[in-house]
Amino acid sequence: MGRNVSRSSLARANGDRDYHIFEAYAYYLVNEARQKRVTDIFKLGGNVYAFDSTTIDLCLSVFWWAKFRKKKGGIKVHTLYDVETQIPASFHIIEASVHDSKAMNEIPYESGSYYIFDRAYNNFKMLYRIHQIGAYFVVRAKKNLQYMPIKWKHRLPKNVFSDMTIGLTGFYPKQYYPEPLRLVRYWDEEQKREFVFLTNATHISALQVAELYKKR
Description:
Elements: H1 7-15, H2 19-36, E1 48-58, E2 67-69, E3 72-82, E4 87-95, E5 114-117, H3 124-132, E6 136-140, E7 147-152, E8 160-168, H4 173-176, E9 181-188, E10 193-199, H5 206-214
Parallel strand pairs: 1-5, 5-6
Antiparallel strand pairs: 1-3, 2-3, 3-4, 6-10, 7-8, 8-9, 9-10
């Protein structure tokens, strides 16, 4: 070619191209990078993912379709992060006004893998879907969670206040997740606060449940 291509020319050229080409290539590179950094920190026999969102503010007069608040625009970037390789596995972008839990439907779930969520993702319909495909989740419970204790563990390790099997009692939650769940109450010495986790992983210890969340 012999000449540099200006950014404006490149932008115009890319404007006529299907973005799926770049998306597919990006995910190819991500997968290659993950394979180079394969580790097994948790010794659980499956991949460990954390899922969370970041809100990016946008100028509403330019990005009119991204209305977030009365005078503010924005989008949310949901990232599925491979905790062990420390490389993002996938991204999903939606309007900032959409609740975080709606994006759970976009995750490419894998049987045998672990998915770590914060409180915004107490979507019991989606959590039950994770359970049904043979994957596992750890999610922080909301403070207003309605449940009934079924069975307790009496011998508990340090900093674990309780480890019990529960049934959900809320009208919709018990319909969306009709099977028992595990609830773990854990005291974090570093932050000097209590965390309450819900999980379907009954085969790991309560400390492993807490450690999964801490590493997210």
